[in-house]
Amino acid sequence: MDEEKKRSHEERMKRKKEVVDAAIERAQEERGIVIVITGNGKGKTTSAFGTLYRALGHGQRAGVVQFIKGTHATGEVMFLQQLQAAAVDAAAVPGVRYHAMATGFTWNTQNWDADKRAADEAWAEAAAMLADPALDLVVLDELTYMLKYNYLDTAVVLDTIRARPPMQSVIVTGRAARPELVEMADTVSELRDVKHAFKAGVKARNGVDF
């Protein structure tokens, strides 16, 4: 790289640093945030669990409620169970409270009453977590489906999230997030489905897809 290009690069990086430093200086409010991870693309639950493991790495405590996926073993949950089983003492056990909706995928049960009861039970667990100041993070995996299909009252869910302890953060995942949820959230990511191996006839793989 010649000297002129080096100087130009250094100037661009200097301006970029000034912008980043200014943004960091402005962001001084300390509180928990609401994150929504939605869209038709792959990786919503994976992203939420990545943040969960990040929180655990900082010694924080967390709660997880999985709506929809309750009867299907996933690598994320199995890993948590393995960590707990391998812990030498209680202090080494990851601080995670976990609950799964008992009926699994709604399109498998095709039973509104059973799904509604399971949704109410799962939401009761979630509401208790959202009221617990000892939890730094609460993950509500696939909650958007409970709102989309009217298993849970959207207003009640949003009010409960708003009333959580001030330093607690919440992650909500799932497709078709309601506009009210998106509006309330502090951070929203939408995953776009560009290509997916499953649609091309490739069987889902453990360790990659679940």
Task: Provide a descriptive summary of the structure in words.
With 210 residues, the chain is an alpha/beta fold. The longest helix has 24 residues, at 3-26. β2, α3 and β3 form a beta-alpha-beta unit. It has helices at residues 3-26, 44-57, 75-86, 106-109, 112-130, 143-148, 154-162, 179-184, and strands spanning 34-38, 62-66, 96-100, 137-141, 169-173, 187-190. It has a six-stranded parallel beta sheet with strand order 3-2-4-5-1-6, with helices on both faces. It is globular and about 70 Å long. It folds into two domains: 1-28; 31-192, Rossmann fold (3-Layer(aba) Sandwich).
Compact description:
With 210 residues, this protein is α/β, with parallel strands linked by helices.
Q: Secondary-structure element sequence?
A: HEHEHEHHEHHEHE
Describe the main β-sheet briefly: 6 strands, parallel
Number-wise, the strands total 6
Total domains: 2
Which architecture of the largest domain does the CATH hierarchy give at level 2? 3-Layer(aba) Sandwich
* Overall spatial form: globular
- Considering DSSP H and I runs of 4 or more, what fraction of the residues is helical? 40-55%
CATH level-4 homologous superfamily of the largest domain: P-loop containing nucleotide triphosphate hydrolases
What is the percentage of strand-forming residues?
5-15%
Strand order of the largest sheet: 3-2-4-5-1-6
Question: What's the CATH topology name of the largest domain?
Answer: Rossmann fold
Q: What is the distance, rounded to the nearest whole angstrom, between the alpha carbons of the first and last residues? A: 46 Å
Mean pLDDT: 86
Low-confidence spans: pLDDT under 50, at least 5 residues?
none
Radius of gyration: 20 Å
Task: State the name of the first-level CATH class of the largest domain.
Answer: Alpha Beta
So how many helices?
8
